[in-house]
């Protein structure tokens, strides 16, 4: 009986029951969106150290795209690109219903958590490994010699250039995304969600694609990349993000449909209308009234 009561209490908090007020539903929605946003943003930072071949993963031959300075590039991408589209779609949803102020709050939390994670990873990789751990993991699955501690450190330790570049790109991308989104909303009103969401993502991802590479491999690179390498790699990465942003449009509409069913169409329109008036740098509390 106790388990049943606890389970029903949990459902009351997260499901659109009639007993929930619009304020409770709005709070629940923000918490869920925060969870999705933070999980994907932090995961993207951690797994971003892996570079994968998009063509090989899809069973296709290398793209061999001719770029600047006689560079021939394939779609070799950071594994983080698997999560960033979710982050930017979540940004657009938060922007729609909680405005620039909501995006500022969630972005600030994310930056703080990412910095904390990198600090803890640095501290953990500095710990002396236990000898028995090294001994029982001294060979890989093929019987080759393996230093498990070095492998662990290489996977989790990222260069300072990548850390600074990714954080700066995230902040600039978020600011540009929310500004472009609200500018397009003023032009389109509550209609054409696809235009303001996809448009803002495409613009912000362009900046994101070049900031990380420029700081990590041009400013801090050793050896330093040439301008041609930076531009070429940035364009290839951006072309992938551009296509993914368009492909995510049905998921965006599905998300809005679910949210409207949860909040009620009339309430969701009122909330979105007031959210459009918030400011990214405003620290004043927004009290949203919904009938």
Q: How would you sum up this structure, described in words?
A:
By secondary structure, this protein is mainly alpha-helical. It has one domain (23-275). 70% of the residues lie in helices and 3% in strands. The protein has eleven helices and four strands. It has helices spanning 2-14, 22-47, 54-57, 84-125, 131-136, 148-156, 160-188, 193-219, 227-247, 249-263, 265-275; strands at residues 51-53, 65-66, 72-73, 76-78. The chain has a two-stranded antiparallel sheet with strand order 1-4. The radius of gyration is 22 Å and the shape is globular.
Shape: globular
Q: Report the average pLDDT across residues.
A: 82
The helix-strand sequence is HHEHEEEHHHHHHHH
Which structural category do the helix and sheet elements fall into?
mainly alpha
Distance between the termini: 36 Å
Given as residue ranges, the uncertain stretches (5+ residues, pLDDT < 50) are 1-19, 285-291
Relative helix content? 55-70%
Instruction: Calculate Rg over CA atoms.
Output: 22 Å
Tally of strands = 4
DSSP helical segment count: 11
Task: Report the sheet-strand fraction.
Answer: under 5%
Major pleated sheet: 2 strands, antiparallel
Q: For the largest beta sheet, what order do the strands appear in spatially? A: 1-4
- Count of structural domains: 1
């Amino acid at each position: 009986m106790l388990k049943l009561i606890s389970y029903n209490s949990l459902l009351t908090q997260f499901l659109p029951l009639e007993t929930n007020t619009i304020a409770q539903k709005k709070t629940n929605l923000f918490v869920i969106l925060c969870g999705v946003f933070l999980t994907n943003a932090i995961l993207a930072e951690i797994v971003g150290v892996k570079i994968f071949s998009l063509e090989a993963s899809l069973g296709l031959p290398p793209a061999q795209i001719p770029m600047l300075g006689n560079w021939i590039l394939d779609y070799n991408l950071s594994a983080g690109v698997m999560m960033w589209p979710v982050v930017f779609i979540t940004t657009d949803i938060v922007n729609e219903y909680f405005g620039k102020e909501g995006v500022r709050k969630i972005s600030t939390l994310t930056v703080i958590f990412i910095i904390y994670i990198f600090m803890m990873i640095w501290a953990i990789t500095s710990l002396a490994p236990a000898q028995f751990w090294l001994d029982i993991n001294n060979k890989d699955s093929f019987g080759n010699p393996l230093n498990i501690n070095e492998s662990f450190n290489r996977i989790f330790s990222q260069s300072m250039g990548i850390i600074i570049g990714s954080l700066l790109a995230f902040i600039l991308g978020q600011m540009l995304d929310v500004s472009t989104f609200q500018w397009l909303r003023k032009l389109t009103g509550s209609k054409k969600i696809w235009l303001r969401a996809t448009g803002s993502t495409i613009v912000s991802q362009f900046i994101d694609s070049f900031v990380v590479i420029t700081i990590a491999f041009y400013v801090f690179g050793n050896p330093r990349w040439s301008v041609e390498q930076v531009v070429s790699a940035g364009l290839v990465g951006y072309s992938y993000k551009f296509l993914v942003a368009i492909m995510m449009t049905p998921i965006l509409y599905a998300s809005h449909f679910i949210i409207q069913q949860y909040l009620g169409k009339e309430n969701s329109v009122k909330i979105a209308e007031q959210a459009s008036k918030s400011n990214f740098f405003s620290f004043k509390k927004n009290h949203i009234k919904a009938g």
